Fold this sequence. Notes:
B: Rossmann fold; 3 domains; 23 helices; binds protoporphyrin IX containing FE
Amino acid sequence: MAHLAHYREAHPLPMVATHWVNLIAMIVLIVSGLQIHYPLIPGVMGIARGLHMFFAFVLVINCIVRIVFAFVFKSAPAGGTRRLVRDYKTWLPQKDNKHQLWAWISYYLFLRREHPIAAKLGVPQKIVYLLIAPLIFFTAYTGFCLWGPTMNWPVFTWGLELVGGPMNMRVIHYLCMWVFIIFMCIHIYLSLVEGASPATLIFFWKETPGLVYDPDTMNITGFDGMGKEPDYGETFKDPVRAAADAAAVAAREKHGKE
Amino acid sequence: MALLDTSGRRASVSSASAQPETRATSKLAQKLELNGFTRRDFLKYCGCLAGMMGLSQLAAPQVAEALEIGAEGGKLLPVIWLEGSSCTGCTEALTQGTTPDIPQLVLETIALNYSETLSAAAGHSLEEARRETIEAGSYLVVYEGAVVTAYDGNILRVADEKGTDVLLETVKNAEAVIALGSCACDGGWMAVRPDDADAMGVQKFLSEHNVDVPVVNIPCCPANPEWLTSVILEYVLTGHLPELNDKNEPAALFSQTIHDNCPRRGHFENGEFVYQFGSEEEAKGYCLYPLGCKGPQTYAPCAVTRWNRSLSWCVEAGAPCAGCATINPMNPQANWVDENTPFLERHRDFAVGPITFQPTTVAVGLTVLVVAVLGVHCAGMKLAGRMDGGADFEPERRWDEKHGGPEAHEAGARAQRLYDDLDEMGLEPKNTGLHRKRDAAARKAAAKEAPQAADSNNDTHAEGGDE
Ligand code: HEM
Ligand code: HEM
Ligand code: SF4
Ligand code: SF4
């Protein structure tokens, strides 16, 4: 048994949108970038470069928007709760995660059997996601160093000078892509390996039943069946919602028996 | 027009128009005629020169006049041409085989009076000529080849003197040094890994020896003689060096890439590429990008000035640009060869110790490794039964078990009771499976086999969910 309830509050709609944009931009940038690196499909070089620059701007703007959203919107500080805090707080160190870095690592290395308790983002996850934003800006910087209209700007000639010229800059830009590819492999693997619930939430905003987490006691207190399974223990639902879910479960049970 | 307004020390154009008869009989005109060039050829060259100096092509007649007046006055600007650690390729490029070229004739007439390679004189008398020129002052130095500093400079000895000493002595009274060719700019070929000769460019060497003579870098391997003559003649005519960029290259010449001006650029934009030498695409003159053309990264006007009397140049002749104009004057390790080899690959090689590798090899290798590790990890997750929902939660954080307060223990105990209850009721909070149809079928089968389990589930809703 495991897994917290996946509530929409973990990823409010604006963040679902930025994740979509990020995903699409990233895929277009990688495909068009590979084409620019070596034009395997001859005729589409112009299209590839056009798309690459367009989605470069999309990616950067989306990243800035996501950062602004962190200060504008609220989200849940942990999985399994509908409690809300300002989203940026979920990116800072949280009490729920204290002393849990090694717990996570040893869990993933099969050195321990039990799933660590954590806030919405586990410690390694949080660190890596936080690094994505600087990596996007860095890649964009190296990209603009290679782009005709901007490569002679002093900010970019400074960088070109620093790395020893446009050849090295191209290689750095290219290697940044591989860092993204490696991140994506790990990220997609980890978000899917324990089931599709995290993905259906971030992509389709679809909730799934699971354990309920109480941010006050920083531990798990109940089970929310969301009308699909019976609730149990402390679920912090408002009475109307709880009654509706209980009725739904009763109806399913009856239907199932016939 | 800047050229006309300058009250240059060397040649004043206004006086040129005062005595037009000099034109017909000028030494330069005679010399050109002797070598089979017409005045039209000369004017055409002067037009190019005007272009390179940032003037309108229409200034060609004025440039021609100024050159002729200058030539009439004798050797106006002494130029000392020194050989460093070089292949003399840049000299070769200037003299271009059998017949002298207009730039060479102009340069010889107006300026060049000392060259280690070209001088008829040799040995002691030649060294004497050099010393006299230095004593007299007001000259330019053209330095060809790398400055090699290994063995305290003894690795290159000229006339029983260290090459480095010759350079330092010669630049003493010079008005400027022109570092000719990529070797002179930053070491070039000479500085290629492992750089046993400790090669470097003139600019770095002089700045390390606190000599502050202005240095003009003219890169390429070899340097195009037209760029050299344009720089010298601009100095002769206007009395100042061309505007330099942050690599001390003439800014007017080296601010655009090969790719910017390439005649194959249309094919690049259309996505028409040569993937193999000897292919149909090559015959069609398509873009050489997949064959490692370094044009997009290389700042040089080869496509504009072209080479060998504007006959052709690398890319036009079918060779991908090798990026020989890449220089990093203060960093010989970033010479054009190490930066651009292998010439036929899109990206350069990198080296760790004696091992060289392509960025792609490392990147793909690392990615494959990560994917393999994830594959193994995935098998582990399957074996550990964590695939549909992960492992069970720890009731209390391990750290809290040892160091936590009573509230943490209390919450932990509560969670433990909850897990026990849920287990008893057979309530398994699972993630949505990745294989929904398969899972649904499995659930149906399970429900048929154990109808009693469904009964026990029924009991729970009375308690659950009301808080
Ligand atoms: C975020 C802003 C980005 C900008 C401004 C940018 C810009 C550029 C530019 C100007 C080029 C050179 C195109 C040319 O020579 O015509 C390029 C190449 C490339 N880009 Fe980007 N890019 C960005 C992001 C990315 C990202 C996120 C990836 C991959 C994840 C990527 C992958 C590549 C690749 C693989 C190349 C080919 C490099 C080569 O082999 O020379 N780019 N990019
Ligand atoms: C099929 C591809 C992808 C899947 C299945 C996926 C899944 C997820 C999931 C489930 C989360 C929520 C994690 C959690 O809080 O538990 C998430 C968040 C995140 N993902 Fe992805 N993702 C994908 C592609 C990408 C790509 C391509 C990137 C960027 C390179 C990316 C960057 C991020 C970031 C930065 C977050 C945290 C962002 C936030 O809260 O706004 N994801 N992803
Ligand atoms: S041949 Fe080289 S310089 Fe010319 S368009 Fe192609 S890539 Fe650019
Ligand atoms: S085209 Fe490239 S390789 Fe050829 S001379 Fe110019 S910079 Fe050098």
